[in-house]
Structure formats: structure tokens, C-alpha cells
């Protein structure tokens, strides 16, 4: 009992007794109670698993992913939990990683309708929440109304435009970069991408621009350099866009660089909008959608811990700056 108290309740052991126990432990090569055995005894790992459908480095390199993780970390720290990041990259063994994760609950970074990890998480019957979608029976859902936000910012981006365009997130887990016209929502498997495209479509049609005329530069990843390359291609078209709505501030930063390189004046020749209201949006003077991914990450953690099973839709707003005409 004295040894147990030394490791688990040291305030109940005298300094002399604790010193003797620790000295004996060193002599025996004993490193202390096994954390796995403890978790079996109490039926809890005191850890939340965060499932990221990206390369592990994305969690640290993408500003918004980092902000989202910081929100989860805030709640975990207060609750005495740790956080385990589970990168899911489209490999055949992705779903098999879920049952082996020693966690009490799952938080899923936005993914596609057909992602097999969703079924694997459902089968675990542990608290779980999806950020951004898709909506899955039995799993929580945290995020903003992406369609309404895209409609609102698209109306600002496309005001006065004759040839609007979109720089988009990937359409499916295949992550194929391409340029297409008027994407059919039925072919878009990422709910966040689908809902934003639907909002942009509505904004375009309200100014009598047929959706099939709108070029969409699909990026494989949320990457400024890729957005810059695809925007350069859009601007070289026979009828280049005079307004571009990007699905992130990272992408919008790439759009700005391509516009400057092509000699386009912002916003007179090319209006540009982003999404997230990250630091780069303020620096570049981007009109954008403001949302707090840190607060959304915290909301996801509270759902996974069973503290808030049905959170309301997260708030958002359009921040107008000098990259748009009106």
C-alpha cells in the first residue's frame, strides 16, 4: 500500500517512506505503474482521438487546422485529457486503425460521404463528432452553415462581375486537381465543398450568370502555391475571370499572387474573396468569411466528452475589405 500511495497519492506518504520506495524502485528497474493497465482498470484512457484526413504534417502547417487543434487542446487540458492525432490518408488500412486507437472518443476533421472511417467509428460506439460534415446518425456534428456563408460572400465577390470563377477544395478523396465548369453537386463527396459550391452557384445565378459558365479551379489540397498555379491557368483563358471566390484564405493568398504576376489590379480587374479570416486575410486586405475554428474545435471536444451533445450551428460573418468592388 505504501508503494501504491507513493505513485498514486504521494501526499499520503511521508518524505522518508517515499524516498525508500523510489530508491528500491530504481534498484529493481521499476519505472512506475503501467498506464495501459491503469486505463483497463478504470475503463478510460483519458484521451480523445482526432482523425485527420490529411498527411500528419498538415495539422501543424495549415493555420486553420492548427487553430482547430488548439481549441480541442484547450478543452482536453481543462478536463485532464490528452489528444491523439490519427492521420488518415486514403490507405487501404485506414479504417483498421480506428479500433486499435486507445481513446475514449473521436473527433473527425471534415471528410467525405464515402469515407470508410465513418462506419468504423460508428461501430466503436464511443462518443464521436464530425467537424463540417458529413452528418452521420449517432455522431455529433459541429460547423457553420457553409451554403449560407458561401452565398453571402459570393454575392460580394461576384457583384459587378461578368465572368466569376471559384477556386475550390477537392471534390472527393481522390483529390484530383482540375479545372471544370459548373460542378454538379451530386458528384461532390466532401460536404463542405459541396455546400460552398451550392452557395456560390446561388450567388452567381442571382446576377444572371449561368452556373455551367462558371470555371471552377479544383485544388487537391488547401495550399496557396497550388491555388496560385491554378489561378494562373484561369487567368490565361480566352475569357479570364474578373472575380474569384476562394474557399480559404490560404487559397486566396495564392490567387492574389497569381493576379499580381499577371498584372491584374485588385479589385478593379479581379475581385477576390477568401474564407476563415486568418491573419493573412487582414494582411492582404481580403474580403472573407470569418469563423473561429478554435471555438469549433473546442465545441467538438465538448461533444466527444459528452458535455454538449447537440451544439447549435457555429457563428460566421462576412468581413468586407478592399479586395472586392462593393
What's the total number of strands?
A: 12
Strand order of the largest sheet: 2-1-3-4-5
Task: Name the helicity range.
Answer: 40-55%
The CATH topology label of the largest domain is Rossmann fold
Pfam families: Peripla_BP_3
Organism: Plantactinospora alkalitolerans
InterPro entries: HTH_LacI, LacI/GalR-like_sensor, Lambda_DNA-bd_dom_sf, Peripla_BP_I
GO molecular function: DNA binding
Verbal overview:
- The structure is a single chain.
- With 326 residues, the protein is of the alpha/beta class.
- Helix content is 41%, strand content 15%.
- The protein has 3 domains: 2-33, no CATH class; 44-142, Rossmann fold; 146-290, Response regulator (Rossmann fold, 3-Layer(aba) Sandwich), CATH 3.40.50.
- It has 13 helices and 12 strands.
- α11 links the parallel β9 and β10 (271-273).
- α10 crosses α11.
- The longest helix is centred in the N-terminal third of the chain and has 17 residues, at 63-79.
- The chain is elongated, with a radius of gyration of 24 Å.
- 43% of the residues are buried.
List keywords for this structure.
single chain, 326 residues, alpha/beta, Rossmann fold, 3 domains, five-stranded parallel beta sheet, five-stranded mixed beta sheet, 41% helix, elongated
Amino acid at each position: 500500500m505504501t508503494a501504491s500511495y507513493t505513485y498514486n497519492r504521494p501526499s499520503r506518504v511521508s518524505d522518508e517512506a517515499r524516498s525508500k520506495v523510489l530508491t528500491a524502485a530504481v534498484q529493481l528497474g521499476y519505472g512506475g505503474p503501467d498506464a495501459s493497465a491503469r486505463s483497463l482498470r478504470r475503463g478510460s484512457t483519458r484521451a480523445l482521438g482526432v482523425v485527420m484526413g490529411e498527411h500528419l504534417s498538415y495539422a501543424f502547417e495549415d493555420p486553420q487546422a492548427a487553430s482547430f487543434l488548439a481549441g480541442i487542446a484547450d478543452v482536453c487540458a481543462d478536463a485532464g485529457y490528452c489528444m491523439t492525432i490519427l492521420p488518415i490518408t486514403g490507405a487501404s488500412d485506414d479504417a483498421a486503425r480506428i479500433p486499435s486507437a486507445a481513446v475514449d472518443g473521436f473527433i473527425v476533421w471534415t471528410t467525405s460521404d464515402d469515407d470508410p472511417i465513418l462506419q468504423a467509428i460508428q461501430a466503436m460506439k464511443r462518443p464521436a463528432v464530425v467537424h463540417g460534415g458529413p452528418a452521420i446518425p449517432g455522431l455529433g456534428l459541429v460547423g457553420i452553415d457553409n451554403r449560407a456563408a458561401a452565398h453571402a460572400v459570393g454575392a460580394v465577390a461576384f457583384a459587378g462581375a461578368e465572368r466569376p470563377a471559384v477556386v475550390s477544395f477537392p471534390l472527393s478523396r481522390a483529390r484530383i486537381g482540375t479545372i471544370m465548369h459548373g460542378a454538379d453537386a451530386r458528384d461532390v463527396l466532401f460536404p463542405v465543398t459541396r455546400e460552398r459550391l451550392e452557395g456560390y452557384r446561388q450567388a452567381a445565378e442571382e446576377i444572371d450568370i449561368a452556373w455551367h459558365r462558371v470555371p471552377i479551379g479544383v485544388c487537391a489540397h488547401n495550399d496557396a502555391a497550388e491555388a496560385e498555379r491554378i489561378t494562373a491557368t484561369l487567368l490565361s483563358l480566352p475569357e479570364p475571370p474578373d472575380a474569384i471566390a476562394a474557399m480559404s484564405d490560404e487559397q486566396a493568398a495564392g490567387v492574389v499572387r497569381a493576379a499580381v504576376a499577371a498584372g491584374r489590379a485588385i479589385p478593379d480587374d479581379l475581385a477576390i474573396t477568401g474564407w476563415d479570416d486568418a491573419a493573412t486575410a487582414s494582411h492582404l486586405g481580403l474580403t472573407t468569411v470569418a469563423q473561429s475554428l478554435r471555438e469549433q474545435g473546442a465545441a467538438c471536444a465538448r461533444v466527444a466528452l459528452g458535455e454538449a451533445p447537440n451544439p447549435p450551428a457555429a457563428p460566421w460573418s462576412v468581413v468586407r475589405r478592399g479586395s472586392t468592388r462593393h
